[in-house]
Amino acid sequence: MVLSKTASESDVSVHSTFASRYVRTSLPRFKMPEESIPKDAAYQIINDELMLDGNPRLNLASFVTTWMEPECDKLIMASINKNYVDMDEYPVTTELQNRCVNMIAHLFNAPLEENEAAVGVGTVGSSEAIMLAGLAFKRKWQNKRKQEGKPYDKPNIVTGANVQVCWEKFARYFEVELKEVKLSEGYYVMDPAKAVELVDENTICVAAILGSTLNGEFEDVKRLNDLLVEKNKETGWDTPIHVDAASGGFIAPFIYPELEWDFRLPLVKSINVSGHKYGLVYAGIGWAIWRSKEDLPEELIFHINYLGADQPTFTLNFSKGSSQVIAQYYQLIRLGYEGYKNVMENCRDNMIVLKEGLEKMGRFNIVSKDDGVPLVAFTLKDPHNFDEFQISDLLRRFGWIVPAYSMPPDAQHITVLRVVIREDFSRTLAERLVADIEKVLHELDSLTAKIKMLSGTSSVTVHEVVKDNGQVVVAKKSALETQREITAIWKKFVLDRKKLNDKMNGVC
Amino acid sequence: MVISSTVSHPDEQNESIACTFASRYVREQVPKFKMPENSIPKDAAYRIINDELMLDGKPRLNLASFVTTWMEPECDKLIMDSLNKNYVDMDEYPVTTELQNRCVNIIAHLFNAPIGSEETAVGVGTVGSSEAIMLAGLAFKRKWQTKRKAEGKPYDKPNIVTGANVQVCWEQFARYFEVELKEVKLTEDYYVMDPLKAVEMVDENTICVAAILGSTLTGEFEDVKLLNELLTKKNKETGWDTPIHVDAASGGFVAPFLYPDLLWDFRLPLVKSINVSGHKYGLVYPGIGWVVWRHKADLPDDLVFHINYLGSDQPTFTLNFSKGSSQIIAQYYQFIRLGFEGYKNVMENCLANTRTLKEGIEKTGRFKIVSKDIGVPLVAFSLKDSSKHTVFEIADHLRKYGWIVPAYTMPADAKHIAVLRVVIREDFSCSLAERLVSDIEKVVNLLDTLPSSINSKDAHVAVIASETSEEVKKDITETQAEILRYWKKLVDGKRVGAC
Questions:
Q1: Residue A274 to residue A288: CA distance in whole angstroms
Q2: Domain extent at residue B39
Q3: Which of A176, B53, B78, B286 is deepest in the core (most CB within 10 A)?
Q4: Which residues does this entry mark as bearing N6-(pyridoxal phosphate)lysine (chain B) (predicted)?
């Protein structure tokens, strides 16, 4: 145990933290401090700084779970010191992971026999899961090409331009070309017909998204499957499908059970889902499931032996905490099918409440569909005077974090605001958000009116730029030119923000 | 919120007040393959899972692992509070992001990175050393490819030179990122990578040489300084400019405090990146590692993704995206709570307890100590005489007392050596060390009374060995090797992966 030296100040242990010297010295930022400090001081100092972080539950940008039951918190804390990878030492925890894999595989209708074990693994998130799935496809394709005596140095993957950033990472790190199907205005997901056109002999797989990050839409995996089956028949290339069900995987089975998107479609060989999104677990858990043993090349698997039985593992991370795996199992048995269904139905209902509240204001176009991940993506009908970024900024004052994004190519001129409805976003919160958005619109309207008024009556020579802190500048030119200038200034401001946000389509 | 419906079982009206162990939930089979149809009360779910988990090993008695198993309650509080923060939302949690950056800088300075006083360090927090190593390896691979392309030479056969004692994640890196692994074989009594042999293996396709500070098997520090000198010479001759990566997963938080004069880090010019596990001697719960690069130039820009927050550029280079923030905050807590003196005290305690354990084991007279005094605080020991019983049996019997002490065979070319290994962590006090020694003595005495449990099918090795040593057909080494091969078959393919 550490013995903190209190030699320097005899009764420092008696002082209340805020009476001690620790809160008036600068906190180390670049170098390790020489001396220890009491644990209460360390706790207080860090806790206080963290107060300035956003409130996770009001972070409406994220799909990732921000609330769990206290009983589960207890289980989490109790297992926080268990290194998941020590399968020998923690066989029960390992078995819980296996149970989760099997449950999820069955949820996705994997074609398993009665006592056959499913093929899958728990990961730290969908990023790791996608990389593993991509690796499996790459290796399978390489092996096939080697056998056929054909070149295997230029693998590619076909996806929509709406993919989450981890697909780009996979492509860059594992040296696979990313062939993106461009979006168009009004059509913000991957078009199956265009995707299949892009498929060539070097395509290792086509990736479809169930629950697009930008507007929550489910891509038409069935149609993709049908078109790809046809093309495969013609070409003999046998191109498979991967479904990135990071968000949708724990939604579709409960409220859209008839929707065919999973292993019921023969070309779907692997699926990833985030346990920490609608799997209702805190950040740090994802799942990758393969259709069958054949879809996961044996040479990628490392075999670890525990309790005399073979435990195959295929992950990028090694040591990691066990808490989230246990929490996922808790949720699966605590809620069961009926519980998850109830949660998703609640989310959907609250989403409708929010959507209708926004529509009623008459200022927004709803870009998200009703069917899909429960979120509301909306744009301003008239972005002439102010745009979505300003609304997002002003909402922060009320405590809400509502992000504004521009769409990827070729719809970069469209900007949306997006609110994700999570389990813990109740109806009261939805109604409050609607009220606050109304307040924000009102404030922006009056700012705009102020500009117009000032520019009409002004005859001064100062140039000012209207900023969102309310300072209005008066222009020296005529009213029309003034408005043009002001609009140009707004536009520049917005475009600068858009450039900043351009690369940030990664929040999930 | 979830409303559990109790309508489905109208015959049990008092369900919500029944004590869990009086309810029906503990007499039904727990779901294992398919999601259950109905919800169950949260107390029942908690109780069922908690009870099953009682049969897991006790983390603090798991002497196989380097990974931290105890932290102060104040830190536990910070961890609980940040469980629901998704680390990657940098926009929303700017303070948490800044804490990570502070940790990176603190660690870079600890490793003597040549940073100017106003310069920020280049590094990132990861989920563990595995991710850190993959990122470092990727950076080397990309740099080398770029260089070869510029020279107009082939770049399709990269390789990496390491010792055969590397942790399994290097093999993973090699396999997943299509890099050849050239391993320097070990020999009896030399269980780390020999710098001379390593440098011999370097060729034009070598993207880097990886040295380990704190070998998993024996805790030894490899001689990075010698490697640096030899490689500098070779680079001068060949012009290949081969760099070094130091896998300081365990040693990175030991060497600076116990052996500050040991040259192994960025003080050596060829060392371009270092990884360290925050969750080993960084004294944080599992789930945090760090990788630091010497200089911006050592991290190719096309691997870095730029995310913008608060108007400023936040470059990121990780394999994982969404993950919890708890461990990062916990790492920062440890840095400011302990400071240099605190970490030094912890490591000195570990060293003292290692000595206690080592001396206790030596005193039994039955074991040979394989680990060195300088290195990661652990004791690796083999049986002087494994003809009748093996270390695997000792490991088995120790479990009865609650201890988890692993037994491993060395990798090639020392596969006939098997050791027991006890890792001394922060929370392994002197009293526990003394208790372990006495329990080991008990086990050894017990085994003395038991017949050799080696299968008679393995003919040469049977009962003969202990009494009539002259009649043994093979010499003791071969016998021991055979016994161990037999045991190895039982524990077939057990990876030395636990870290």
A1: 9
A2: 15-44
A3: B286
A4: 280
